Amino acid sequence: xxxxxxxxGSSSVSYKWLKTQALVQYSDMADEMRTRAVDLxxxxxxxxxxxxMSAARxxxxxxxxxxxxxxxxVVGEAYAVxxxxxxxxxxxxxxxxxxxxxxxxxx
Length: 107
What we know:
Shape: globular
Radius of gyration: 16 Å
Number of domains: 1
CATH topology: Protein Inhibitor Of Neuronal Nitric Oxide Synthase
Strand content: 15-25%
Helix content: 40-55%
CATH architecture: 2-Layer Sandwich
Largest sheet: 4 strands, antiparallel
CATH class: Alpha Beta
Number of strands: 4
Structural class: alpha+beta
Strand order of the largest sheet: 1-3-4-2
């Protein structure tokens, strides 16, 4: 069945929204902290779209500066991670389709 132009347009808008927003998979951060952390991460990922290592470095530096030291960051696709972290300091989300970001703080 053919879709109308209006339906097709809304579909592409939804896809565009998914490409520019974070889909939080898990977080035990306070709401305000999570919002700020996601913003920091999205800015770095948008700035370094083809260089995940640089994005991770910028995210780590920003998180250390904003929330204190000992943050760890993984940015990539198709990875698994098991971490020990300070309670209230873990964020895992997807961005831009297949890219995942995991940020955590430990002592």
